[in-house]
Amino acid sequence: MPLTFQYMPYEEFSGLDSDKKIQKLLKVVRQNRVILMEGTLNTKEESDLIQETMSIIDSKFKGIEISSFNPLEKGSSKSTEDRIRRLFSAFIYGRKRGLTIIGPANIVKEMRKDPRSIQLFLSNRRG
Amino acid sequence: MIKKFKDFFFGFFAGLKKKKHIKLGIYGPPNGGKTTLANRICQDWLGEAMGTASSMPHETREIQQKEKVIVESNGKKLSFNLIDTPGIATKIDYEDFIKKGMKKKEAQDRAKEATKGVIEAVKWLDNMDAVLVVLDATKNPYDQVNITIIGNLAARNIPVLILGNKTDLKKANIKKIEAAFPQYKVLGISAEFGDNIEDFYKELFKLVK
Hints:
The complex is a heterodimer of chains A (127) and B (209). With 127 residues, chain A is of the alpha+beta class.
């Protein structure tokens, strides 16, 4: 069975409130697709996504694997120049920058992230 | 006028009372050693354990609390309400429990309880005065759950101390955790064997000062 990656551009979510955004993401994931979402969720949306995911777990849907690259995240550098650049970037782009990958846990066994890459380990028993 | 004075008087003392018992949450992904740390703290200062720690994921599936845990360090005392939370996860598969030796029904029930535990743990974030985030130092710190927990605490302005637990194991890598969260204090400990626990108590006082 082929694995489907579904690209979801930022514009697809920009007009949605957090609840609808989360419902939309979970709907696609439950179709056994891996989402490549342009941009990132905010911290509240991330925790809401976890809660919503937990509430729908059953014997078929085991949850999600999620990982994101957020260039606005504090971290990689502590230099003042970088901080200013980050603030400017956040002001201009908001959460549009970066990438979020979300997959169903019955297909994506593990996502292993480091600062520059994400590895997807797939389950042997997909579907 | 009298009412205003009363409000001020009782409000002042209520504030003091609130500060007297600091709500200290213990958060992290499953199997990082949260309950082992809670037990270590309770054993050190109360002489009794808090909960059951095990290698089985999601052993803690409900919020556990211990009130008035008085901790001393450098001649100072602080009183904590210690709150051990279920491990936060994005997936729970009952078949993982079957692999650990449980029967299907028992495993399904445990998975259901675990999902409720995660929801509760996230809800309780709002109640904390300070949080210890306990990570397994042998695992990859860039896991999204860690980033979500710490990001949510930062958004709520809740002071955070990151503990890289299991430093007794060869694979433990505190530097990697420090690299992942450079804006936070990261301390390596072994909650099970008590390594670096004195430094942990010192950092705890700095966290809530």
